[in-house]
Amino acid sequence: MKRKPVVAGNWKMNLLAREVAAYAEALAAAGPATTVDIVLFPTPVYLDGAARAMPTWVSVGAQDVHAEEKGAYTGDVAAAQARDAGATWALAGHSERRQCHGESSAEVARKAERALAAGMTPVVCVGETIEQREQGETEAVLDDQLAPALAVLDTADAGAGAGAGAVLAYEPVWAIGTGLSASPEVAAAVHSHLRGALNAHRAGLGDAARILYGGSVGAENCRDLLSRPDIDGFLIGGASLDPASFLRIIRLSAGSGSGAAAP
Ligand code: PEP
Prior knowledge:
Layout: E1 6-10, H1 17-30, E2 37-41, H2 47-53, E3 58-62, H3 79-84, E4 89-92, H4 95-100, H5 105-117, E5 121-126, H6 130-134, H7 138-146, H8 150-157, E6 167-170, H9 184-201, H10 205-208, E7 210-214, H11 222-226, E8 233-236, H12 243-256
Parallel strand pairs: 1-2, 1-8, 2-3, 3-4, 4-5, 5-6, 6-7, 7-8
Helix pairs in contact: 5-8, 7-9
The chain binds phosphoenolpyruvate (PEP).
């Protein structure tokens, strides 16, 4: 089954307002991407500005939303607020949130549910540490991380949220920001496992879900990764900070897809 690729950029705690504006101008000048879904995840204070500035073919997403609907959570952002500011996608469970903020997989699933209920497409992130991989625990760790989120991914597949379907990101912790990308073989094996787990939850869910790879993706390795049938796109950190480098990955990814217009 051919699924439309997603090329997503996670800016984390980088870029200032003027750089976000210049980035949007660079994308607009490059022209529309039609064969891939493009999503950018700015720092929360710039969600609104980014959503207004980006060309219509670029979606904007929240890097995180709170698991509760609203309330006394100083410094946090509610899903409805992110949606109100223009976000149509939301990350849930990026490893930096799991590690720096102690987010459990159950909490990550609740965040994804909030995002979906607020009208956004959640991207549920899973990934093992290098120690877990070396101990042969990768699949068990990923299964544990995925289990609480299966129901929300199933609901997303039914067309809830922003209607972009079920989206999962495999991001091995050891590959994030290290320059040590998983090889296409390693990534493809994990994606195939995750797709199987989704299909075991409900037949067809795994076939429909888009599973992104994240971890030191750049222009040099994106084509090879995307050529694997179970890899449906990317969640990109460092290489998404510069619009020229992000556009290069979009072009290469669009060229690996159905062959229609690329920016
Ligand atoms: C990320 O943080 O999601 C990520 C994949 O970062 P990088 O591309 O820099 O490895």
